[in-house]
Amino acid sequence: MARGVVPRQPARTGRQDKVRVKNAHVGTGAFARQGQGKASAAAPKGRQGTAGKSTPTSAPKIKGYNPVAPDRVTEILKRLDQLYTEVKCALTHASAWELVVATILSAQSTDVNVNRVTPELFRKYPTVEAFAALTPEQLEPDVRSTGFFRNKSKSVVGAAKKIVADFGGQVPDDMEKLLTLPGVARKTANVVLGSWFGKAVGVVVDTHVHRISRRLELTTQNDPQKIEQDLMKIIPREKWILFSHQIIWHGRKLCIARKPKCAECALENLCHAGDKTWSTVEMHKNAKV
After folding, report:
1. Is residue 6 situated within a structural domain?
2. Does 64 map to a domain?
């Protein structure tokens, strides 16, 4: 075999060498508000491969990097649309009430685990009235495998009794009314309003949305309600429902908490997270959970 220069390959560790980690807000090219004209001049020459293309060894510094600049947010949404075109709520349900139950059970559990429990649960108790007739202790064995089953049983039975007594057996399609149900906070209310009623009242902030929104620097907050408020300011309202589903699916497929698959991610060059496993841009220590 003739000798030659072999193009650089990703390191076995997954992290590209010589990509610097910065705590300051610096970014790259098209999505910085200032310094766009300096991008090409600041870029390092890199090493030449057999095809004559340069492989960057460090990212250019661009002043004025704004992680929530409209053009950057728009590009993130565009790429999410290309990755996840018609994603929907992963919780199996056939009514608003079933979605309320499934969402309550999903706390500190996985959707896969909840979907294993709910088919038999809804067969056994087919209506909200059937749940309202139970005591929490009667429901506990049916939901034990979802974790925190005592609190969840109290919430489900309490919500059922409230719906029957105050709302005629119908799950309300109003945020304020939903928040009066035991076990229902903004996350559950947003899931029900968005996925069942098609109402974009807010943004669902589950663990994936919480984690990835911080990694993408769309928020610096840690409180779910504050994260939701930040996302509502920068994401168009017509995207609120779909955005949450897309980020949730992205968190399951690629942006995995313990070891994100950065080399396979279409958002890679827009992401400066300090815990990336592979990067072609500078990494920010503060852009991580």
Report:
1. no
2. no
The residues annotated as belonging to the active site are: 187, 206
Q: How far apart are CA 195 and CA 203, in angstroms?
A: 11
Question: How many domains are there within the chain?
Answer: 1
Give the domain range for residue 118. 96-195
Running DSSP on this structure, what letter comes out for residue 27?
Answer: B
Q: Are 80 and 251 in contact (CB under 8 A)?
A: no
pLDDT in tens, 14-31: 555 445 444 434 343 444
DSSP annotation of 173: -
Residue 213 lies in a domain: no
CB of 135 within 8 A of CB of 157? yes
| DSSP code string of 185-253 | -HHHHHHHHHHTT---SS----HHHHHHHHHTTS----SHHHHHHHHHHHS-GGGHHHHHHHHHHHHHH
Give the CATH number for residue 162. Answer: 1.10.340.30
pLDDT per residue as tens digits for the range 72-86: 999 999 999 999 998
Kindly state the DSSP code that residue 15 receives in the 8-state scheme.
P
Cβ count near 181 (within 10 Å): 25
